[in-house]
Structure formats: structure tokens, C-alpha cells
Design a protein that fits this description.
By secondary structure, the protein is of the alpha+beta class. It folds into three domains: 216 residues, HUPs (Rossmann fold); 75 residues, Chorismate Mutase Domain, subunit A (Up-down Bundle), CATH 1.20.59.20; 112 residues, no CATH class. The protein is built from 13 helices and 21 strands. β9 and β10 form a beta hairpin. α2 packs across α7, α5 packs across α8 and α9 crosses α11. The chain is elongated. 29% of the residues are buried.
Length: 441
Amino acid sequence: MPFSPESLIHTLRGLPAAQRFWVALSGGLDSTVLLHALAGRRADLPGELRAVHVNHGLHPKADDWQRRCEALCVSLGVPIECRAVRVEPASGESLEAVARERRYAAFRGLLAPGDLLLLAQHQDDQLETFLLQALRGAGVRGLAAMPEQAQAHGLHLVRPLLGATRTELEAWARAQGLSWVEDPSNTDTGFDRNYLRHEVLPRLKARWPGAGETVSRSARLCAEADGLLREMAAEDAARYTVVETLPLRALRELSAPRARNLMRHWLQSRRLPLPPAQKLDEILRQAEARADRNPCVDWEGAEVRRYRQRLYALAPVTAAPEGFSLKPGVSHDLGAGLGVLRLVPMAGEGLRASLCGPAGLAVDFRRGGESCRPQGRGHARPLKKWLQELHVVPWLRDRLPLLHAGGELLAVAGLFVCEPHAARAGEPGLRIEWLEHPPLR
């Protein structure tokens, strides 16, 4: 069915009800068509129509494009919100990836629960994405390309134009007398996507005119297969109690493909980047290493370590932070992926509140030679021995926050309070809360 506002409304009627429909408006052909078509049929929408424009500041004409989007929305009577973002990739980071991250952060800061974000990707974009993923050796998750709707980036995303080709959208736009922004970078065939768009797809479509539609069908089938794999991974995770850590027994009992599927599920639940296929295979091999070894497999942004009979996934381990003072009621972000530390006044719990002076309690990290007697234990021992006895993972033993007063060790966050510094029943105390920390044992 050729593109029309009627076909667009038909697509949107199959979606969950929304309070507001936000069109991500760049000013280009696709988003201009999407906004115009919806503005003409806004009475058929079950919620308010709005637009959002993100100004990345990456092109000399970026401000002009923003003004054109604002003028378009004024002419259509559609409210628009514009957000400027700073895109400054660090060394080794992709400009495109950082721009996308900042863009979605801007969307998250604007949209409310129950809002839908409408993206203007069309069938040709889907074909390009599928081919790029295939050329990168992606599995079914990558080949699923762009779903028509998804919960992603903390938003409910909808792509109602995936059934339409760029040719159809342009024909409709010209028939309506519309104008739009042309980003000159879209013609630079030095970019992989542009090379596909201008050099490959015309020849592909000349030979197989229905390529866009058939590849879209393949993407939907891959999405369905990926859904089944996710269900299987969730069942395996429940069966082996995979939460923060992954027991080696799961990898030994499952087939290699199923074990890799479970590991991908686990890493995503830990909000860590997925590794290349060879790294997953390396993790499987290291699972069979000698029991006295603690191997580590790392890749950009993450690492998996083994201790005893479990795997631990975490951000790359860095040096312990500098010491600091901590006052009650103040949260301190430790950085280095170590979470947040705070003291909460609580009668009969944690440390005796009288130990905390006006400057707070000193917090630092193990240097060696510390000794203490945990609450309820009969004798003092070197801290090193207590950490071994409690099976604290080796790579975090020097990164445990230690609380001091007057040079004396009072407590080890996440583990214990030392005698005689624990608050007694009814005595004012300070509960030590260490939030979002990596698995310690």
C-alpha cells in the first residue's frame, strides 16, 4: 500500500494509547513528511501531537535547521521543544554513537511516562540497517534491525513509516508542496551507510525490486527468533539463579550455543557492552581452567572474572579512589564503578553515632597491615585474613571502603562493623549503606 496519512493512522491505531505523540523532527524529508501527515489527521490521534528537535551543533547550518523546524511547527500549529546537546567524543569513541547517546538523553529528559516517541525511519533505512548488520557478522539480534515499536533507551519508540519507501515519501511530499532540509553529509559515500544507499541499493533494487519488503520480512523473523532466544535465556537464568554472578555449572551443563545465549542475557542485565564472539568463546574456555586460577577476559567497557565457581561481570577494574570524609545524610559517589556510600542515622544499627565528629568519618581503602575484630567475633586478626575467610573477590579487596576515626578502623563497608564500635540497642547509630556496588563475594 503506497504511503498516505490514512495508512499512517492505521498503523498508529494498533499501538498502545498515549498521552502525547512526539515526532523526532530533524527537518529532513522523512520526519517532515511524518509531522505533516499527522498534523493533517491529528483529530484521529488519541493524544496530543508535539515535536522535538535536537540540535547537535555538528554542522555550520545546525541553528538554521532548528529555526526551520520551529517555523514548520508554527505553520502547522504543533508545539515544539528544541534541545541543544554537546557532542564531544573521547578518544576512541564514535562521533555517531556519542551523538545518538546525547540525543536520546535529551528525549528522556523531555518525555513523560505514557508518551510515545515517533521516529521517521522508513523501509529503505531498514534495508540499509539489515545489510550493515549482516556485513558486520551480526546474529539474529542485529539482523532484527529496527523494530516497529520497542522499549529502548528508557523510552517507548515507534517507527510508523517502516512500511513506506523513501520514493513513496518523497512523492507524497512533492505532491503536497513540502520543502525539507538536505544534510550534505548524507551524500558522502565515505560513510558505510551512504555507500550502501547511493552505490549498492540502486543496483540491488534494479535486480530485486521487492528487496526492501522481503528484507523487512526477514528482519521481523529475526526479531521473532531473538524473542525466543531471550525467553530461553531468561528460563536458563532462573534455573541456575543467575543474577549478579553466573555459576560455572551453567556453562558446563548447557550446550555451547545455549551457554553463549545465557552469557549475553546476563551481560545485558548487568548493563555491560556485549563482547565479540571470540571473547564469548574465550570465557567458555576459561571456565575450564584450573581451580586455583582466577582468569579474566576483557573487552572495551567490560570484563568477566572467575573466582571459585562463579563468573563476575563488571566494568574494567581501576585504581581505588582517593580517601575522603563522609558526613551523615550525604551520599558520596565512589566512582570507578564502585557505587555510592552514605551514612544513615538509625537507632541501634551500624556505627555508634558518637564516633562521628563535625568533619564526618574518614573513608579510605586498604593499604595493608590493617587489623580488626568484626562484631560478634572473639578475636582480632589482620583484615587480609578476614577478607580471605569471607571469600571476598580478590580484585575488590583493595577497593572496599574502610571507615576510620582517629586512625582506628571502625568498619568495612558491605561486610562488618568492628568491635567495640557497633551501636547497641537503642543507641544512636549510623547505618553504612553501600549502594550499587559490584558483587563482593
